[in-house]
Amino acid sequence: MFADRAKIIIKSGKGGDGHVSFRREKYVPNGGPDGGDGGHGGDVIFVVDDGLNTLTDFRHRRKFAAEPGEEGSKRNCHGKNGADLILKVPQGTVIKDAETGKVIADMSGENRRVTVLKGGRGGLGNQHFATATMQAPKYAKPGGDAIELEVTLELKVIADVGLVGFPNVGKSTFLSRVTNAQPKIANYHFTTLQPNLGVVDMEEGFGFVIADIPGLIEGASEGIGLGHEFLRHVERTKVIIHIVDAAGTEGRDPIQDIHAINKELREYNPELLEKPQVIAANKIDAIYGDENEIISALRKEFEEKEGIRVFPISAVSGQGVKELLYHVKDLLATCPKEPMVYEQEFDPSVMVFKDEPYTIEIAEDGAYVVEGPKIDKMLGYTNIDSEKGFVFFQRFLKEQGILDELEEMGIEEGDTVRMYGNEFDYYK
Fold it and tell me: Does the keyword Cell inner membrane apply (predicted)?
């Protein structure tokens, strides 16, 4: 099965905690603080690998994590930085937040290397908190938290031209005729299972990438068959070629087929129908003459009514193919030259520190009880008995918005604030 979609969990590295220690040497009875800083946590970085064309590597493993930074140590030793996590993906991969579906990064165009999650900063050792009045600080700053995020990876092939059509109308044969692609071709009544790409080389050095977009059947936009999985590949194409069976060998109505496929494109994304279209009436090698009632009906329905050109061709013999390709070349000349790249809609950095949950409740005795995992951790790392430590902790409460929320709840000077066994009198 072609892997063009995956859902994984990525996690950056936590920053190493700052260290609390004091210089202890012979003949140095009052050594100062020498706690080192923690190392930075590793980043999660996505990189385009031109040797990949599927997301198979992410189908059997779901969790990926960068290394955490090491804790600082005594003698001002800095903790080791955590190694970055490098995830290689094929060009055209769109990374989205799994919860909201918003785009984090599109690995297309110039986006060859993107840092999606930043590792936590290393915490400062106690050497940084020494002052003239506090020469022996017994606290250090904890390392920044890791960020964990569930993301979806969607591969949207990057091709100038997309071939669409029902199974067995000759899309694969046409692709092998006009490009260097070698798709598997047989008279099967089910669709190709993966997009096939090829490059069309024309005179004067002009060329374009063409893709056989499989799976487009009635109900595709509603998830029937494999269609919904492959509709996304049409999004980046600039021109759409409808391949239909002009000989009627499959007993299908080509006009109904084109309307059915356009209906699926419209329901998936109405903007897809704004792209230039052309119709390739295939298999004319199986009819008498150059035109029949099917081709005439196609011209009347689409050329006369909608201005969509119809080209009778034979993908087997090559008849009419050159004229079709030159028309496609002219259509591409009217399209934007820049590749379609999705803009970022979601920044994972907003998930850090400030969004750590906490609760504020009023106890029976009127005390304001504040709890949360980050608060508990900060209390464990901060010496609130010292003036410097208490100011440090108070600044933390302000940065988290906790002090503002207490005031909104009606706290007054002299009221009690309780946090994990610690009680404080509130003063502005």
Answer: no
Q: Is 214 marked as binding a ligand?
A: yes
Distance CA(141)–CA(12), nearest Å, equals 19
Residue 354 annotated as part of some ligand binding site:
no
Residue 217 counted as an annotated binding residue: no
Task: Name the phi and psi angles at 30, rounded to 5.
Answer: -120, 55
35 is in an annotated binding site: no
Q: What is the pLDDT of residues 72-84, one digit of tens each?
A: 888 888 889 999 9
158 is in an annotated binding site: no
Residue 285 known to bind ligand: yes
Is residue 166 marked as binding? yes
**Tens-place pLDDT, residues 89-107:** 988 889 998 888 888 998 9
Known binder of ligand: residue 265? no
Residue 380 has, within 13 A of its CA and on its CB side, a CA count of 10
Whole-Å CA distances, 375 to 124, 353, 391, 397, 399: 18, 11, 15, 8, 12
Ramachandran class of 50: left when φ > 0, alpha when ψ lies in -120 to 50, beta otherwise: alpha
Record the tokens describing residue 82, joined without a space.
Answer: 């955590």
Q: What's the pTM value of the predicted model, to 2 decimals?
A: 0.62
- 90 assigned to a ligand binding site: no
Domains of the chain and any CATH numbers? 1-155 (2.70.210.12), 161-333 (3.40.50.300), 357-425 (3.30.300.350)
